[in-house]
Amino acid sequence: MTKSWYSDLPQYYQRQIKAAGLDEAGLTRRRLLKGMAATAGVAMAGLSSRPSRAAAQMTYMCWEGYNDPRIMDPFKKANDVDIAFDLIVDSPGGFAKLQAGASREVDLVSSDMPWITRLGPAGLAHELNPSEYEDVYATFYDQFKPPFEPLLHEGKTIGVATRWGWVGPCINTDITKPEVWKTYDPVFDDANKGKICVMDWGDWPILPMALHAGIDPYQELDQNALEEVRKVLRAMFKNTRMLVADLTQAQKGLLDGSLLGCIGAGSYLTSAVRKQGHKNIIAVVPEPKNGLKQGIIWVEATAILKDTDQPELAQKLLKHVVSKESGHILSLLDSTCNVVTNKAVEELYTPEERDILQVDYMWKAWDNSQMHRIAPNIDEMLAIWQEELAAAQ
Amino acid sequence: MAEEVPRRWRDPELLVKALPTVILQTTCFLAPLVMTFLLTFQRSRNFQLQWTWDLWTWTDIFSKPHYWTILLHTVFMAVACVAICLVIAFPVAYGLATRFKAWENEIKVLITFAFITDATLKIYGWALFLDKNGMANYLLGSLGLSPEIVAFLFTDWATLLGMVYSLLAFAIFTLYLSISNIDRSLILAAYDAGAGKLRAHWEVTLPLCKPGIWAGSVLIFLLSVGAFLEPKVLGGGKSPMSAELIRQTFETRVNWPLGAALTLMLMVVSVFIVLLFSRLIGLKRAGLAS
């Protein structure tokens, strides 16, 4: 039996060292960081009666919900792994964090699709081989099967789509009719001044407004097109009651009737309220205008980081996240409910759950929507947003 | 001939003693500041940092008025917050230090509890209270008043209310300390010299409270310019202040050079205003002295 630097330590500490990956020669930065996490774990274990016995450690950067114990616990148990979660509150922030160096600690990331795709050119993503995921794609909706263009970078697959929904006006049908929202015109109607809410979620409110102005934001825009975006945002701010980044404020406003409609959100906002029984709150997609589809399909995706030291486990976790059982849980969380990319999950939905998720409406929304991807001029459009918001003071 | 006294900054013992502070200040304050400054000479394209070493970010800041509009709005709101806090805090602190001695500790505990309660909770509490269908309008409605008389949620007034509510304790406690330290015999001497209550207050109490007023003002001003929750939740996000602009630039636009430059701009302007006021107060003192 060979003697290691830690073999004289008590068994309990030896286990922790092995779990942290510190038993092999040389300390990489990743090992050191994970070791520190394990040390913190040991300290925490001192407070509880049962110390961690997992053989491996992983870090998963994701939206809240992906870390639901009902999803994660079976995986952790089956693979004897501890997972640390790095919860993101907005996709650009998560991307910035990865770019700033967190990619060296994170193994797997679930975020908005354009930000997952950006991991490709940023050199942070592990390129996936679709043939290794055939079992996963077998039960996917055809729309998300490879080659799924929005998740490709130079022909290589960067991630796997997980959850999706649509961006369109959110309304209370007791107060306004869906037919009124066949266009975004009510947003600019003087009669609705002070009754429109805009979700301040980065590009989400900007892109539908650009589409309404007849500009395709997913194409390279010239100065004239950007001026049109400026005009439509200026008009939108004129009628806006509030800009919110918090779902609950918008949900409350829709429920109590103080808001006529909320734009820049969609099924992500309405579904949790519908789950509470408020079926009068719906997310609709306007009809195409000037040859441009007015809705936007958002997709969340999961990617494996290039620097992961546990590619096999990361792949397993990715497959677990998009599995039928996980998908069902992921689509019906307390904070938000959204359809998933795995078609097999539909079998598990009760009629009530289908209603909550507007499953019968989702393909109509899809047909009238653009696929959300990287908008080439998003930098300029966000700058215009800031300028017009300041001018509206 | 008297022995030459070494200059203090060359005193080896002093230098050794100052070393930990110097190291701490250099690593924790100066170095990040320098790095932030260097970052402003880079560029961001498609959400990625590009090491370019040019003046694009500063050109952008000095050529676009909206950054300055938001900064001016921030400074205005911060000054208004300071003024309102002082007006409210002075009588409270004065009463606490002189009139309500019997309940002094209980009152201080209550203020402290309100102060240490989570800011998000407090701000959302106000939002619910002032909402169209909130408690305020319900109470006014039950009194027969117009149900929407309190319609200032999602306005600058609501933002100001939240800021004052969050920061008032700083003014109360700094003023309280100042007032508590005033030698009562000076006020009694003013009465003996024929001053009325108002004049004694104006000519003795207030000048002696200046350190507390100044300390409270600086604290509130600097915290106010960094306010982001109040304009977002109570102000409805339509009238952003600098902190929100910086957050948006860092997080949403992922434009770190611009965010760094906006941060430095806010710091410089804030420090300049504080220095300007302290200079003005200093000059006034000099004038009084002469």
What this model shows, in words?
The complex is a heterodimer of chains A (393) and B (290). Chain A has 15 helices and 14 strands. By secondary structure, chain A is of the alpha/beta class. Chain A folds into two domains: 11-163 and 299-353, Periplasmic binding protein-like II (D-Maltodextrin-Binding Protein, domain 2, 3-Layer(aba) Sandwich); 166-298 and 358-391, 3-Layer(aba) Sandwich (D-Maltodextrin-Binding Protein, domain 2), CATH 3.40.190.10. In chain A, the strands form three sheets. In chain A, strands 1, 2, 3, 6, 12, 13 and 14 form a seven-stranded mixed β-sheet that branches. Chain A has a five-stranded mixed β-sheet with strand order 9-8-10-7-11. In chain A, strand 1, helix 3 (69-79) and strand 2 (81-87) form a beta-alpha-beta unit. Chain B has 290 residues and is mainly α. Chain B has a domain at 76-240: MetI-like fold, CATH 1.10.3720. In chain B, 74% of the residues lie in helices and 2% in strands. Chain B has helices spanning 12-39, 56-63, 65-99, 104-116, 119-130, 135-142, 156-180, 184-192, 197-208, 210-225, 229-233, 242-252, 256-289, and strands spanning 43-45, 48-50. In chain B, strand 1 and strand 2 form a beta hairpin. In chain B, helix 7 runs antiparallel to helix 10 and helix 12 packs antiparallel against helix 13 (256-289). The two termini of chain B are 37 Å apart. Chains A and B meet through helix 4, strand 9, helix 9 and helix 15 of A and helix 3 and helix 12 of B.
Fraction of residues in H or I helices of chain B: over 70%
- The number of helical runs of chain A is 15
- Which segments of chain B are poorly predicted (pLDDT under 50) over 5 or more consecutive residues? 286-290
CATH architecture designation of the domain at 76-240 in chain B:
Orthogonal Bundle
Largest sheet of chain A: 7 strands, mixed
Topology (SSEs and partners):
The complex is a heterodimer of chains A (393) and B (290).
Chain A (H helix, E strand, L loop, with lengths): L10 H9 L9 H17 L10 E7 L6 H11 L1 E7 L3 H9 L8 E5 H5 L16 H4 L14 E2 L2 E2 L2 E8 L2 E3 L23 E4 L6 H7 L10 H17 E5 L2 H10 L4 E3 L3 H9 L5 E3 L11 E10 L6 H11 L2 H7 L8 E2 L10 H6 L2 H9 L1 E3 L6 H14 L2
Parallel strand pairs in A: 1-2, 1-3, 8-9, 8-10, 12-14
Antiparallel strand pairs in A: 3-12, 4-5, 6-12, 6-13, 7-10, 7-11
Helix pairs in contact in A: 3-11, 7-8, 8-15
Chain B lengths: L11 H28 L3 E3 L2 E3 L5 H8 L1 H35 L4 H13 L2 H12 L4 H8 L13 H25 L3 H9 L4 H12 L1 H16 L3 H5 L8 H11 L3 H34 L1
Antiparallel strand pairs in B: 1-2
Helix pairs in contact in B: 1-13, 2-13, 3-7, 3-10, 7-10, 8-9, 10-13, 12-13
